[in-house]
Every structure is written in structure tokens, then in C-alpha cells.
Amino acid sequence: MRLPHTITLRIATRASALALWQANHVAELLAVQAEARGLLPEVELVTVSTEGDRRLDVALSAIGGKGVFVKEVQAAVLDGRADLAVHSAKDLPALTPDGLVIAALPERADPRDALVGVRLDDLAAGATVATGSARRRAQLAALRPDLGFVELRGNIDTRLAKVGEVDAIVVAAAALDRLGRTPEVVDRLGVDTMIPQVGQAALAVETRADDTDLTALVAQLDHADTRRCVTAERSFLETLGGDCELPAGAYATLVDGAVRLRAMLLAVETGEVCRTELVGEDPVEMGTNAAHELSQRVELR
Length: 301
What we know:
Layout: E1 5-13, H1 17-36, E2 39-47, H2 51-54, H3 71-78, E3 84-88, E4 100-104, E5 113-116, E6 128-130, H4 134-143, E7 148-150, H5 156-160, E8 168-172, H6 173-179, E9 186-189, E10 203-208, H7 212-219, H8 224-240, E11 248-255, E12 258-267, E13 272-280, H9 283-300
């Protein structure tokens, strides 16, 4: 009888409750795949402090926007402290660093943004909404120019604690679901109302490109439909500039095998939210075309 071969998997992750949930979730999925191959995985979480976690007193846009939650985690994989990394796909810049690959995008959760505290239709005139996302502010302001906004940073529980100090906050619905948080009033905003951030509610598992055995194992977690949709969204972001400083969002679904991509970009000079919707077969082409169209429209504003 062949005994299982023990392997150690060191997973780099941020230390927040949500990040740890995500890392442990991927660890559980990997354990199933490893055991099916006669492997006995031993998982070690390598927690990493990122600039985005340390600097809670300033807006994300002031410290670099996308990438502030992932660079140190990616470095842990590249320098050998960890074997793989688990990220929220929405935190990843569009360009993957040399030496790393996104080996898997597991099946996506609920991609919607959630208004907590008051339903959107019940927000009083001049109400104050807390969010650290320029994308969320832009879309809510387009719907309700009377609203006021304040910054919101910190982990999910810190954010939820702000309800009552402000009229409402905005968080990712997937974060509530993954951590089992059930606020009294939660209004999940449809993607036609609030286009999500690129990659929102998807997890991204990165490995070293030269670690072919581990990459092949992790690739078993990849969800083909999620991969295709997130590829379209990331193509949109990459075409805008890889780490677009403008408030932008994109969300793709599959309709009869084709990619349906909805995207938005804010014209900062006018405050107008420009939107588009494209349908096609090639996810990269859809993302590229959406970015070119919206960029041209914003330039004309």
C-alpha cells in the first residue's frame, strides 16, 4: 500500500479576518485536490503586513491605490518565504509581476456592493455615506447628487461599527457573506445601479511561474467561467493604464457563451459617470474595447 506523501504549503496572506478566511478557504480546496493525488498537505499561513493595512489614517488614493494590499504579499512568494499567495482579485493591479502567475481564480461569490444601515431608496436628503472607494462615491453621487461622503477605512468590523455615526456605509457583499456578518439593514445594489470593482468577489491564487508542480495543483481550483469574466475586467483595467487612478469599474458575465461586459469610468472634470456595455466572444477584446470607448468619451467631456 502506498502511503500519502506529505507536502507543506505556505500561503501568504494579509492578517485581516477576511484575508484569513480567504486563505483558509483556498487551503481547504487545495487539500481536497492534493489528497486526490495521494498527497497529504500541511498548510502554514504566512501573514504579511501591507502598506494598506498599516496606513489607515489616509485615503487609499493618497498611498498608491491598487497594489497597496498586495505588493508585500507577492514579495513573500517571490523571495521564497511562501509558496503561494491568496488575494482578493479586486486588490490586484492589472499587470502581474514578473515571476508570478495567477494560477487559479476559484468560483466567484456575490459581486455586488452593499449599502449597510439604510436602503438606497430610504436615504434621506443630504444623508452621509461612508466609503473609501472613489468608484462607489462617483456612482452614488450620480444617482443622488444630494448625498455627502466621508472616508471609510479599516477591516469589515471597523467599518460596520461606523453605522450610526453616519447614515450608511458601503462594503462588498461578499465580505459580509464570507464572515457571516448580518447587519440589520443591507441593501445589495444591483450591478446596473453600481458597477463593481474589477475582480470584486473573486479570489486570485498566485504562484511562482517556475514552480510548475504547485502551479499545476493550484490550477485545479480554477473556475473557467470566473476566469473568462475576470480576464475581461482585468483587460479593461490594463488598457486604462494598469492601475487606473480614475474611478473605474467593470463587471462581466457570460450570456449564451458570450462575454457581456459592463464598465464605467468617471469624467473627473464634469463629475459625469460614463458607462458602456459590450458583448463578444473574446474577453480580452471586450475589455480593451470598453476601455478605449470610455477613455475617448471621458476625454471629450
